[in-house]
Amino acid sequence: MSITPEPEPAAPRPALVFDDPLDQQSSDDTDRGWGERPEGGDSAADLKRFLDEKPPHHL
Fold first, then answer.
1. pLDDT tens digits, one per residue of 30-51
2. Binning pLDDT at 50, 70 and 90, where does residue 25 land?
3. What are the Pro residues biased-composition ranges (predicted)?
4. 3-state DSSP: the chain helix, strand, coil percent, rounded to 5?
5. CA 45, CA 12: separation in Å to the nearest integer?
6. H helices of the chain, where?
């Protein structure tokens, strides 16, 4: 008589979510990361930012 091992229980499947993805706020819906500067910057920091961000045709 042969004894077969019991099958492993299947991993739970992820639940399907039918919410409207456009109802949720994405990272693009905020102004975070779109060029804000920290408060209290000094003129040296402003000059460095200007020099870093100026187009190459502006010398």
1. 666 666 666 666 888 888 888 8
2. confident
3. 1-12
4. 30, 0, 70
5. 53
6. 43-53
